[in-house]
Design a protein that fits this description.
This protein has an eight-stranded mixed sheet, with helices on both faces. By secondary structure, the chain is an alpha/beta fold. A hairpin with a 5-residue loop joins strand 1 and strand 2. The protein has one domain: Zn peptidases (Aminopeptidase, 3-Layer(aba) Sandwich), CATH 3.40.630.10.
Length: 272
């Protein structure tokens, strides 16, 4: 298991190696959301994030390893664990939530079960990746009340985590964004009729070995909002085989890293 303590240790290592590490905001429960920057702030920028879905926490050590090994000249911004409260809920259960009322609420939303291993949402039972303002609430699987997955929230950007990621994106104005998810070993591109920089998307597909698909029917995701807002290349990259349970994906991290080790170099070149 890769925990919040592991993340903090890796952030300390990256900072000691010269990376800039800072917070972009706070989660619902007041935990700081860290960001890593490496490279130059001149020229096109690349932004990647991971663990916006709680059960997909394997994406955090993946992007951390990618950042440790990135030594290119171009700017890269990485939010390695967007949904910190949700990840802790998956890994530790409701004991990670300090408020008894909120504990009871989450248990009720989870059907009375203390097993949160398949939980995707944050600590308010909002799925952060359907809370962005891009066809918000129009997804085929969207739900409109608190749930372990797919609840869109009361309005776009209702959640602190989404606001923090939006603010960073609007400040950096990246030319390429990479949203790391699990699982399926596929890449999704475009949004609606907007499908920029197909050649770069294909290069990343070729490098990873993951097939490239259009995002038909996608709604409310970070990639959707970014592509619609900035009209630039945004990709959702799904790592790990469909047949591997979420809590076992960490056993395949070396293989997943090998598949993704060239992605940042390609993305940062495409951002120029």
């Amino acid at each position: 298991m890769y925990t919040l303590d592991n993340l903090q240790n890796d952030l300390d290592i990256l900072a000691s190696q010269g990376a800039q590490v800072f917070d972009i905001g706070y989660t619902l429960l007041g935990r700081p959301i860290p960001c890593i920057f490496k490279g130059s702030k001149t020229g096109g920028q690349t932004l990647l994030h991971a663990s916006i879905h709680a059960r997909e926490w394997v994406t955090t050590p993946l992007v951390i390893e990618m950042m440790k090994n990135y030594d290119g000249p171009y700017g890269v911004w990485c939010v390695p664990m967007v949904n910190i409260d949700g990840v802790l809920l998956v890994q530790q259960g409701v004991g990670s939530v300090p408020d008894k009322y909120l504990q009871d609420f989450l248990l009720d939303v989870n059907g009375g079960s203390s097993d949160f291993s398949l939980w995707k949402a944050n600590a308010r039972a909002v799925d952060l990746n359907v809370n962005f303002n891009a066809r918000w609430g129009e997804g085929a699987q969207n739900v409109f009340s608190p749930a372990p997955a797919n609840y869109v929230g009361t309005k776009p950007f209702s959640e602190d985590e989404n606001i923090a990621l939006r603010s960073l994106t609007e400040r950096v104005k990246p030319s390429v964004t990479l949203s790391y998810h699990a699982k399926g070993e596929v890449i999704y591109k475009g949004f609606g009729c907007v499908d920029p920089n197909i050649q770069c998307a294909q290069r990343i597909s070729d490098a990873t070995g993951y097939p490239l698909y259009d995002s038909y029917g996608s709604a409310g995701g970070y990639k959707d909002w970014y592509v619609a807002t900035f009209q630039k290349l945004g990709l959702t990259i799904e790592v790990g085989g469909d047949d591997v349970p979420y809590d076992k994906l960490i056993d395949y991290l070396p293989q997943i890293y090998q598949q993704n080790k060239d992605v940042l170099n390609i993305a940062t070149q495409c951002a120029q």
